[in-house]
Amino acid sequence: xxxxxxxxxxxxxxxxxxxxxxxxxxxxxxxxxxxxxxxxxxxxxxxxxxxxxxxxxxxxxxxxxxxxxxxxxxxxxxxxxxxxxxxxxxxxxxxxxxxxxxxxxxxxxxxxxxxxxxxxxxxxxxxxxxxxxxxxxxxxxxxxxxxxxxxxxxxxxxxxxxxxxxxxxxxxxxxxxxxxxxxxxxxxxxxxxxxxxxxxxxxxxxxxxxxxxxxxxxxxxxxxxxxxxxxxxxxxxxxxxxxxxxxxxxxxxxxxxxxxxxxxxxxxxxxxxxxxxxxxxxxxxxxxxxxxxxxxxxxxxxxxxxxxxxxxxxxxxxxxxxxxxxxxxxxxxxxxxxxxxxxxxxxxxxxxxxxxxxxxxxxxxxxxxxxxxxxxxxxxxxxxxxxxxxxxxxxxxxxxxxxxxxxxxxxxxxxxxxxxxxxxxxxxxxxxxxxxxxxxxxxxxxxxxxxxxxxxxxxxxxxxxxxxxxxxxxxxxxxxxxxxxxxxxxxxxxxxxxxxxxxxxxxxxxxxxxxxxxxxxxxxxxxxxxxxxxxxxxxxxxxxxxxxxxxxxxxxxxxxxxxxxxxxxxxxxxxxxxxxxxxxxxxxxxxxxxxxxxxxxxxxxxxxxxxxxxxxxxxxxxxxxxxxxxxxxxxxxxxxxxxxxxxxxxxxxxxxxx
Amino acid sequence: xxxxxxxxxxxxxxxxxxxxxxxxxxxxxxxxxxxxxxxxxxxxxxxxxxxxxxxxxxxxxxxxxxxxxxxxxxxxxxxxxxxxxxxxxxxxxxxxxxxxxxxxxxxxxxxxxxxxxxxxxxxxxxxxxxxxxxxxxxxxxxxxxxxxxxxxxxxxxxxxxxxxxxxxxxxxxxxxxxxxxxxxxxxxxxxxxxxxxxxxxxxxxxxxxxxxxxxxxxxxxxxxxxxxxxxxxxxxxxxxxxxxxxxxxxxxxxxxxxxxxxxxxxxxxxxxxxxxxxxxxxxxxxxxxxxxxxxxxxxxxxxxxxxxxxxxxxxxxxxxxxxxxxxxxxxxxxxxxxxxxxxxxxxxxxxxxxxxxxxxxxxxxxxxxxxxxxxxxxxxxxxxxxxxxxxxxxxxxxxxxxxxxxxxxxxxxxxxxxxxxxxxxxxxxxxxxxxxxxxxxxxxxxxxxxxxxxxxxxxxxxxxxxxxxxxxxxxxxxxxxxxxxxxxxxxxxxxxxxxxxxxxxxxxxxxxxxxxxxxxxxxxxxxxxxxxxxxxxxxxxxxxxxxxxxxxxxxxxxxxxxxxxxxxxxxxxxxxxxxxxxxxxxxxxxxxxxxxxxxxxxxxxxxxxxxxxxxxxxxxxxxxxxxxxxxxxxxxxxxxxxxxxxxxxxxxxxxxxx
Lengths: 658, 658
Known about the structure:
2 copies of one chain form a homodimer. A 7-stranded antiparallel β-sheet of chain A has the order 1-5-6-7-13-9-10. Chain A has a 6-stranded mixed beta barrel with strand order 15-16-21-19-17-23. The first copy, chain A, has a 5-stranded mixed β-sheet with strand order 3-4-8-12-11. Chain A is 36% helix and 18% strand. In chain A, helix 3 packs across helix 5 (99-114). Among the domains of chain A are: 18-221, no CATH class; 439-538, Immunoglobulin-like, CATH 2.60.40; 544-657, no CATH class. In chain A, a hairpin with a 6-residue loop joins strand 6 and strand 7. Chain A has 658 residues and is α+β, with helices and mostly antiparallel strands. Chains A and B meet through helix 14, helix 17, strand 14 and strand 20 of A and helix 14, helix 17, strand 14 and strand 20 of B.
């Protein structure tokens, strides 16, 4: 079996039009997006959700287009809420036509197109409020960030519908920026405070074939971090002010670390600053490493990946240890109850992981992609599709969320909407494009990264192949990859990921057990596959204890539970309060059983211990010399991603080990 | 034995001139204050400490007195640094004459007197910067707070030296305020944002006999919390601005809870807001309850004491669970690594506790007074007397103090000085007036609250008595109270506190073991005592494990160690890193031994357990399924109050119990 060449050849995701998700677990999310989230978010964008924070997003476009009078409202990047919604609609329409939805979206496209200026510029904040201050505060004002989301929406909507109107708007925006920014003496040698456009420009290049867009992405990536710092120069030029503190002359310039602009990206080795900006940038770096065969950039990607994932990632696949700047802190600093772990940041990790998988199919990337997707991203959305988490803590004490200012960012219940509503539409666009993360493929190999059931048409070794993936995950461990149809003949390779959480995975080819070559977390099966051939996989779904590195002080003496891709948590509604009084004995047997709660889940149960004050609990003294009394108690854990969907209460991922 | 009448009669502290501290442990602190801290802080006030944050304090007075030109610098309450220093000097001179120190202080008094205005007003910030805005922003500007510290200094300096110059200055300030504030139609019905003057006015009343000062204190206390809120009225009157954000019109008025002005103090039941303001106010409330025999106010004091001590106090006798507003949070919210636990707040607790002891001698007050004094207040000062903690955490990871913004307030080493230098001189004034906390006495009973060796002259039952207290505390458990001299005859009572940490205390009277009546934590001995009579006490110094209430989630599964009055902690220099990897087995024997480190201490040692990642530690994965390896290790704890006096490193009070 020769897979060396296959491995070195970059792979690409399959077109969403060619993959039909048919998965018991994910179908419910896709349906939720199509039937609930997209309509609901449209209402939110139009400020029609009662008791929710208003978006002002559509209203801003109407004002910018002179269809309505009034002032701009909301965040300076409010436009992106519509762009992310449009992007999600694009993916949705690629999967499944929906005339009503497309009509709404077309109207939105008309609206935003009418807000575009003659020179291609499109940003409602600057158009309404400060037309003369365009491109004077990239540090704070997200102008390129907003343009990036427009471009992503345009590419998705073009792929989903074949319509070019939005793509044309996006190209004019990109052309405008390409004119204003670059190495020329009449251009600005700068870049945005919030990375996003870099990865979007790569998508625009892929969609249009126009190399200027790829080159602009390269310019923005490589300009970043050069000294003297662009953010300092423009800060001086505008009189040392910040958008966030109008009228105040600041004593200190913006901190470049926050924007990952403290050193050239090729020299960066540690994930620092605002987590979402970081992973969006890493994604673009991986894109450029892939397109330009840029090994130096690839090395930087590998370093940053490793630092992020091996030193600064929560067990649920989330990042950002502090809400101060929604940022990374430092290696092994992973506090459970003050973390940020923004839903958007995990979405960005998934973007980054998929690019790295395209370059080098290694299980470590897919493991993290799956961890973030199954645990954090879906945790960001309530089971009703109408409530969202922005922050995804490992531990919640509702009284502290309201009573301790250092924990005000830790919401104990999902919110209807957010003034800064980046996460809800971001999760929507990811869920409805999940098909882009299941596989990547090159000319003769299909890599299966995620076991999400689907039927997919693609070409392998010049043959038209229809793949049928069936999967019991995340609940049960049986999956099969079947050649539903294949014309012609010739050898190609099916590479199946062996998840790190399944130490005893069994493979059968056409019923016969096989010991495939496993390299970097993938099992490789090469053959002249014919219609009806199938590979069956049986994963090890034993509930497992997870321990953290001893440098993670917050988890010393604690254990987390995982079953399949799901990390579990303990909720007050199942286990009483305080959860901190519970401990899991080292030798307690973990059992899992199916229950029809929360839409149907496997719970994990164990005989545990509860430590209580002797005597009447509430009257016990604050400090005492008598040790706590231990009583046996049945512990019950549910998948973290579903927490907060029942009664309001405490939640804890890491439980004390007894 | 009839002590009922004795108990109901309020007691008072002894005059500092009549108590000579001669205590192995405390003498070193008193010497440190006299020989190091007072001279060093004088240099700091004069901006002559290299590499320390400048104080500007003396310079401000010189500018206000027109002896120098320039602008005001520092915090709006910067004057109080000099006042607290003068107060400490007053106590020091009462104990021990010192011509050089007195000369410096007299010069400082001359200086500040020359900055006083014709109408009695004295505040360098307003005199230099904003003379026309006096008394327009009591919420933020600490005008009465500063005046209060001046008054306290004046009373102490008068008692210490007999000189009246500073007392006259203070009376003129108090008279000025008494004219401006009160129930009259030409007066302001207001009060200060930072309580302090209330307790100071009681001292001024006690020193001068002038009832107007007591009445003014009553007015300020009872006006507080009435609706409409004074802070809201003056905020409206000055155009909704704050001192802290000049030029910005605020959308929200000041939060009255922060200043304990959310409801009338008599109705308050929970400790809320800024912790130092709270305890200064509670102290004045207890003072007024005492002087006015005000049972309603006393009930409020008892409620607030109980909430603070039984629900919101750290094991080291510190308060303030969050640095946001240096404030209380809510019941049982006692995080170890993000707390504030300001040194000044523990000083204020000691003030409050002493007043409550005067009203009702109960061991619970003295226990807390001792806990705060021996653990937090002295922790605030380095053994060299030149470095200070403002914040006193239960757990320190130096990398997090610098790398996690939510922990920036947790300093891993004592600082030379602070821009807001409230704590260093506050600790100095308390340490040098420790004699005011050892005893309280009424006509026929001497209450011994703290076992700090001394000789004291006082009158009991009309007899002149000299008491000699010898004490091995905090290190060894032998103490004796001897009647060094007593004229005449007649019965009086010696009431000795039985610390809650000593469950097996043995008493001997003139060598014979006795079982005294013990009530509310005091052992009562009544007799016609003669010269040479003595009561020997033997405390139980067994090291003890302390457990927290199960609602204190941060300490679930953890234990702290205490021996005598000292709470212990684990330092990296003794135990390696990470400290979180250490655990103390439930049944491990605790041994204590004298060592000549840190000036001589008893360390506590035990056979513990270290949990480590299997394999090479630094290369271990972030998450793994193999349980940590446990290795035996010798644990070593030192008194918390001395932490941070050796190598820089981690510190932890609460250790995991295994």
